[in-house]
Amino acid sequence: MGDPTEPASSRRRTLLRSLAAGATLGTAGCMRRLRAATGWESVTPVSVGIKTLPADADPYALRVAQSVAEWLRAAGLEATVTPVAPEELYRQMLLRNDFDAFVGRIPARLRDGDGLYALLHSRFGSEPGWQNPFGYANLGVDDQLGEQRAATGEARREALAAIQRTVARTQPFSLVAFPDEIRAVRGDRFTGWHRSDYGSPLGYLSLDEVAWGPSREAATATTTPTPDDTATLRTVITDRRPTENLNPLAAEFRWTGVLTGLLYDPLGYETESGGVEPWLADGWEFETVGGRPQARVSLRDDLSWHDDEPVTAADVAFTYALLSDVTLGRTTEGTETATDRDAAVAAPRFRGRSSLVADAEALDRRTVEVRFTDCTAAVAARALTVPVLPEHVWRERTGPASVGGVAFGATSEALVTNNVPPVGSGPFAFERNVPGDRLVFERDDDHFLAEASPADLPGDVDGLPPYERIDVTVVGADETAVSMVANGDADVTGTAVGAETIPRIGRSEGVDLVVGRSPSPYVVGYNARRPPLTNPRFRNTLGHLIDRRTLVDDVFDGYAWPAASPLVGTDLVPSDLRFDGDHPVTPFLGSDGTVDADAARAAFRDAGYEYDDGTLVERD
User: What is the pLDDT of residue 410?
Assistant: First the structure.
C-alpha cells in the first residue's frame, strides 16, 4: 500500500509506472481494479432488475421471479426482484418500456400461429401494448412473420417453424411453462363447468341451469332456497381492475377480455381449431381482389346497443378505423393528410388483428366490406374477432387525452377513459359497480341470442344463459375466493387460483375442481432495447439459467407444462422444439435447481463478458 499522505496525482503516477514496468498482480480481477483506479479503463457489474406481480395478484409470478434471480446471482449477476401492482406494472412494461426483465404471462392466444406477428414483429417495438413489449428486432423473423401471413400449407408451416427456432435461440423471452388454470365451482345451481373455456365469454354463456325435475317446489321443499335461486351467477375474483375500468382498449387494465367480451360483441369468435365462426355477423363471403382478400360481412337483423341505438355496418367500419388510429387523424373536415397518417396512434389492444385490415367501408346499414393487407383469407378472418364499438359513443373520445385539465397530444381519450358506464351490444349490459369491490351485469333479453338457432352459434352456446345477472365480487386472496365458493357464497372463482388451494377445494362438499391448461404461458421477458439485453447471446445465456422442471415442480406444484415454444398445444411446433426433459435449445446449466457456476461463467465468457472476483462485468 502507498503512503496515504501522498497526493492523489503522485499515487496515480506511481501506479501507472508499475503497470508500464509490467508489475505482476495476483489475479486478473486485481489487474482490472488497478486499471480502473488509474483511469485506464473501468468495469461495470452486470445487473438485471426483474419486475413482476405481487403474490396477492398472481399465485406464481413472484416465486418464479425469485427463483430466476437466485440462479442469475449464482452465475455472478446482480439481480433484484421488484413486485409491482398490476396496473402500474403494465403501465411500466407496456406503455413506458421501463423494465429490464419481467416475469408474467403472455395473454395472446396463438392457436393459428399468426398471434406471433404482433408479439414479435419489429414494426410494433415502439408501440404501447402487448405487441412486441420486448422491443425485439430481427429482420429475418420479420420476413418470416410476413411470409406466414401470405403462405398456405407446408410453406406456412416452415415459416412458422423457422420463427420458433430463431426465437428459441435469440430469446426475446424465456418461456417457462403453460400453467393449468385451477378453479373451484359449485354444481348445485349451474352445470356445464367442465366443458367451459373460461378464457372466452362463450364459456360462461354455455352454462346450463341445474335440472330440478318435474316439480321445482318439491325439490326445494326440504332445502333452504337461495335468494333469486339461479337468477344470479355469482363469481369471485382477485383482480380489482375490471371493477374500475371497462375500456376494452386499455392494455394496463385488461388481462383477458372475458368481462368486456360479455358487454361487446365481435363479428365472430375464434374456435378451438383456429377457425372463426359468425357471431354478431350472420355470415361473410371472402374473395380475392388485387391479390388480397376482401370480405363482405352481413350483420344479423335488428341489432341494438344497450342504449337502444341500432348497431349498423357504419359502427363496424368505424371500429376498424378507431383501432388503427384512436385519434382518427384528428381532422375536422373528414380528410386526412400525410402528416396525420404518420402521427396515427393505434390502439394497443387487438393490434395484431387490426393490422390485418387495410380499410373497411359500410355498403348499407347491414353490410360492411373489409379489405385486408397481404395475407390469406384464413389469417384475415382473425380480424373479425375484435369487439365492435358504437360510433356514437366512441367518436367523441378521439380528441386529445386530458388528465386534470392538461391535454396529452400523443394519445386520445379513447385510451384513457375508464368507460364506466359502458355501452355495448353484448348479451349482458352494465348495471352498477363499486370500484375495487363489486361489478354487476344484467342480461339483455333483447340480444340476438334470444332468437338465434343453436346451429348458428359457435361452441356450446344455444341461446341466452339461464341466469339473469352476473355478480362479480373482489377479494384479496385465492384462499378467500375458494372459501366463498365452499361456503355457498359464490358459484365460481372467476380468476384462476393457485395450486395450494387444491386441498381446500377437495375437502369442500359440493365444490368441484376444474382444471384446464391455459393458452397463456409464463415467461421471463427481456427488454431488448437496454444493454446488455440488446445482445442475443447474453439473452441466450440467461435462458440457460432457468430450470423449468424445477419451477414446475416447486412453484407450480406440478400443475404446469414446461415448453420451448409458445405454440405448444398446436400442430405447428417442429419436432426439434419439443420439450423432453429439458429445453432443447437452452438447457439448464446445472441440475436439480442448482446452477453449475463454472459452466455459467464459461457461457458468459463465450458471449463476450468477463468476471471480476466472481461478479459478471462489462467494460465501459
Answer: 60
Domain with CATH 3.90.76.10 in the chain: 300-394
Torsion sign, CA atoms 413, 418, 422, 424 = positive
Task: Please state, in angstroms and rounded to a whole number, the distance separating the CA atoms of residues 192 and 210.
Answer: 9
Tell me the pLDDT tens digit for each residue of 501-513: 999 999 999 999 9
pTM tops 0.90? no
Q: What is the pLDDT of residue 146?
A: 96
- Contact indicator for 357, 371 with CB cutoff of 8 Å: yes
On the 0-12 / 13-18 / 19+ scale of CB atoms within 10 A, 207 is buried
Classify residue 208 as left (phi > 0), alpha (psi -120 to 50) or beta. Answer: beta
* CA distance between the termini of the chain: 26
Residue range 444-455, pLDDT digits in tens: 999 999 998 888
Query: CATH 3.10.105: which residues of the chain?
Result: 47-179+520-619
| CA pair distance 21, 470, nearest whole angstrom | 81
Instruction: Say if residues 472 and 438 touch (Cβ distance below 8 Å).
Output: yes
300-394: CATH number = 3.90.76.10
Angle, CA of 499, 501 and 505, to the nearest 5°: 120
pLDDT at 542 over 70: yes
Helices (H) and strands (E) in the chain, counts: 22, 27
- Model confidence at 278, in pLDDT bands (50, 70, 90)? very high
What is the residue type of 203? G
**Sorting pLDDT into bands at 50, 70 and 90, what band is 147?**
very high
User: Residues 261, 426: contact at Cβ < 8 Å?
Assistant: yes
Give the list of residues 6+ apart from residue 20 with CB closer than 8 angstroms, or none: none
pLDDT, position 274: 74
CB atoms near residue 217 (< 10 Å): 8
25 secondary structure, DSSP code:
-
Q: Cβ distance 576 to 584 under 8 Å?
A: yes
Find residue 471's DSSP bridge partners.
234, 440
Q: With pLDDT > 90 as the criterion, what percentage of the chain qualifies?
A: 70
Strands 615-619 and 190-191: unpaired
Report the residue count for the chain.
Answer: 620
Helix (H, G, I), strand (E, B) or coil at 384: helix
Q: How wide is the angle at C-alpha 112 spanned by C-alphas 108 and 116, nearest 5°?
A: 50
Task: Report the distance separating Cα 538 and Cα 536, nearest Å.
Answer: 5
On the 0-12 / 13-18 / 19+ scale of CB atoms within 10 A, 456 is middle
The one-letter amino acid code at 530 reads R
- CA distance linking residue 486 with residue 224, whole number of Å: 16
Contact yes or no for 545/68 (Cβ under 8 A): yes
Choose among 504, 435, 500: nearest CA to 474: 435
- Do residues 398 and 413 touch, judged by C-beta distance below 8 A? yes
User: For 184-263+399-517, CATH number?
Assistant: 3.40.190.10
**Rounded Cα gap, residues 460 and 465, in angstroms:** 11
State the fold for domain 47-179+520-619. Dipeptide-binding Protein; domain 3 (3.10.105)
| 3-state secondary structure at position 230 | helix
Q: Is the peptide bond before 532 cis (omega within 30 degrees of 0)?
A: yes
Contacts of residue 571, Cβ cutoff 8 Å, sequence gap at least 6? none
188: Cα separation from own chain's centroid: 33
Question: Coil, strand, or helix at residue 438?
Answer: strand
What is residue 108's predicted lDDT score, i.e. its pLDDT? 66
Distance CA 418, CA 355 (A): 24
CA–CA dist 449, 116 (Å, integer)? 33
